[in-house]
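[SOLVED] Need 3D model of a two-part complex

Original post:
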Amino acid sequence: MTFSPPINSIQYLLRHAIDFRALQACPTHSDLSDELVLDILVGGAAFASDVLAPINRGGDENGATLKGGVVTTAPGFKEAYKAYTDAGWQGLSAPQSIGGHVSGGQELGGQELGGQELGGMGLPMVISVAVNEMLYGANMAFGLAPMLTGSAMNAIIAHASDELKKLYLPKMVTGEWSGGMNLTEPQAGSDLGALRTKATPNGDGSYALSGQKIFITWGDHDCTDNIVHLVLARLPDAPAGSRGISLFLAPKFLVDADGNPGERNGITAIGLEHKLGIHASPTCVMEFAGAKAWLVGPENRGLVCMFTMMNEARLFVGVQGVGIGERAFQTALAYAGERVQGRVAGAEPGAPISGHGDVRRMLMDMKSGIMGARAINLACAYALDMSEAAPDEEARTADRARQALLTPIAKAYGSDMGVAVTSTGVQIHGGMGFIEETGAAQHYRDARIAPIYEGTNGIQALDLAGRKVRRDGGAAMAALIGDLDVILADTKDISGNNGLDLGCNIRHLEAGLVAMKSATGMVIAMDEIDSHAAAVPYLDLCGHVISGALLIKSVVSGLKAKDPHAPAMQKLVWHHSLKYLAQAPAYLAQIKCAAAPVFAYPEDRLADL
Amino acid sequence: MKVLVPVKRVLDFNVKVRVKSDQSGVDLANVKMSMNPFDEISVEEAVRMQEAGTATETIAVSIGPEKCAETIRTSLAMGIDRGIHVKTDAEVEPLAVAKILKAIVEEEKPELVLLGKQAIDDDSNQTGQMLAALLGWPQATFANSITKDGDSLTVGREVDGGIQTIKVSLPAVVTVDLRLNEPRYASLPNIMKAKRKPIDAKTPDDYGVDISPRLTTLKVAEPAGRTAGVKVADAAELVSKLKEEGVI
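Solution:
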C-alpha cells in the first residue's frame, strides 16, 4: 500500500510544539525559511514514498544474502541507494566545509583543513529528524545504512586526525562510501568493557585488528565501493574493562593518498543473522584478520569517542519507532476504512469498521501516541541545534544539558511507542493482521528491534536516572519541569476564553507534573539499586508527561496563531491526555517501592510456581 | 533556445477524489496537491534540453492561488532557471490560461513552449492547442520524443496506431505525453539552490487578460457505481438481451 509521509503533522509540531522560530532567528540558520523547510520535506517525502516504500515489502521477503563472503542486498536496494546518494540526502546535516558548522555538537578541527569544501548542507537536526522519520516509515531496513554513515562521520569529525578526515569524509558526505559501527562481540553486548578484539601496532602508525564482531548492521553490502568501519578494540597492555578500549578506523578497501580504494583489507562478513524483522538490513558477523586500521581519538578513550556517534544514533532510533508507527497507522487506517464487519451503530449497513467505537479508539491510540513521541524527538533535536546555534553561551550550555536529558527518553519512549503502535496496527486488522500479506505484521516485526539496539531501553532508563538526573542533583530535570510548568500556566490562561475548554488537558498535565516532580525527588534520594529498579517506570512517566505537555503547548500555540490544523489537533490531544498523560501518576507507586517488590519474590521460585 | 514551461498545481494523483456534497465541484480542503504529472515530464524535458546545451534558459509559469508558488519552486528544484507566478484565486479556464501564456510569450520571446498534454484534474487537453492558435505557431501534441535540428523540431507523437513523426519549425508549441521521459527527483542540493532563483509575481491584469469563465459548471457527480449483473441461460438469450439493451 502507498505511504504518504506526514508532512502536515511534522510542520505543525515544528511550528507549535518546539520554538522553531527561535532556531530560524539564529545567525547560522538565517536562510532556513518556512518555504525552504516545506520544499525539503516535500522533496524527502517524494523520495520516501516513491523510491523507498515500494521496495519495503520485497526487502522483507527476500532479505539480504551472503555467499562466499559477499553480501548482496535485497532486490532494488542497490538502485535505491544510488538514487539516495544521487539526490544528495546523505549530506543533509553534514558540515558544508571542514571547519564549518556541523550538527552533532562539534566543529571540524584542523587549521590546515580550514575551508575545504565537504558538500554537506549543514541543516539543523530538527530537519534531519523530520526527513529521516519519513525515510524510516517508508523503509526502516534501508534507513539504517544512511544512519550508520552519519554516526560514523560524526565520530570521525569529532575525534579523527586531519589526515583521516581528509581521506574519508568527502565520500561519506555524499554517501558514496557508507559507515559501520563495530562494537558488539558475543561476550560483550551491553557491557562493552568485556570486548576482546585486539589492535597491534604495525610500527608505521597503523594497527592490525584481529577479532570477531557480531550484530554489525550494514557491516557488508553491495551498495557502495567502500565501507568505513569504526571498530572498538584493545591495545596491547591496555587496562582491563571499559577504560582499556580504543577506537579505530578500518576501511573495507585500503585507500591510496588520492582517496581511491585499492587493496582489500582483512575484513570479511562471515555470517548473516536470521532476524525477526528488518530483513533487508544485513546484520553481519564480521571477522577482522589483521585488518589495517588507524587510531581515532586518544588511546584507551574509545568508549568516550564512540558515544559521540551513539547519542545521535539513539535519537534516530526513537525516530524509527515513530516512523514505523506512522506507517503502521496508515496501513491500519486504510484497512479499517474498507473492512466491513458488523453493523456500525448509527450508520447505514455496509459502513466500515472504522466507525466502531473500539476500532476508532485503537486508531486514536495509535495516532496520538505517535504524535506525542514525535514531539519529544523534535524537542530533543531542537535542544541539540540550539546547543550549537544559540547566541549566548549560557543558553548553549542549558540546551546541551536539555539534549542530554531528552536523548534517552526520545530513544526509549519513541521505540517503545513504535512497538505498541505497530502491535495495535496488527490488532485492527484482526486475523488478517497475523497474515503477512497485509503488511501489518512486517511493521510490528521491524519495530521490535528499536527498543533493543543502540543501548537497550533498560540502559536508556539507567542513563536517564543515573547520569542525567542523579549526577547533577536533578538540575537539568528541574529546568525542564520549569518549562513544562510554563506550558501549564499558558494553557490555563487560554482555556475558558471564547468557549475553549482545555480543562481535561489541564487536570491531567497538573497531576502529571506533580507526579514527575515527586518521582524525580525519589529517584535522586534513593540508593543505586533502587534507582535501577525504578528507572524504567520513571522514564515512562517522564515520556508521558513531556509528550503530553508538548502536545498541549502545540494546541495552545496553534489556536493562538489560528493554524487551520489546530482544532483537529486539539481533539487529538484530548485523547492523548486521557490515554497517555493520565497514566503518569500511576507509575509513582512502582517508583516509590523500587527494588523491594522486584527482589522480594524468592529467586528460586521464579521457575517453579 | 529559450523554453517556457507552464506548470499547474493539481490534486495529487494518489488522492481519492471526493465530490462536494452540493455537487458544485471537487472537495479540495486539506487535500494533498502536487504538480500535474504531465507538467513534471515537460519540466524534465526542458531541464534535459538545458543540460544538453539545446536550451539556453528555462522559465516555469504557474497561474493560480498563492500556493502555486510551491509548484514553481518544485520545478526550480528540478533545474528550471526562474519562475513567473500569475496570482489569482479565481477559476481559470484553458482559454484564459492560453491568453495569459500568449502575453507572457510576447514578453519573454521563447522559441519553445513545452506543456503537459493535459492536467489530471479537469482533463481538458486544450491549453497547448489554444495557445498555438492564438500565437499562430505550429504545434506538436502528445510528444513521445523531441529532437532539435537547426530551426525545427522533430517530434514523435503518440497516436492510436503507434508513433507519428512530424517536423515543426520554431518557434513552436509542444505538448508532452506520458512516455517522453521519467522525471527526476529534486535533489537536496538543488532544493537548497532553488531558494535563490527568482519568481516574478504577476496578476492577470498585468497582462490585460479577462479571465472571467466562459463555461458554467452545472453539476459535478461521482461516476455511478456498478450495478449487479444478470445471468443468462444460453447464447440465444444473451443475444436477445443485448438487442433489448440496444448494444447490438
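Edit: The interface with chain B takes residues 2, 4, 31, 33, 35-36, 38-40, 42-43, 46-47, 50-51, 83, 86-89, 91-92, 119, 121, 564 of chain A (CB under 8 Å).
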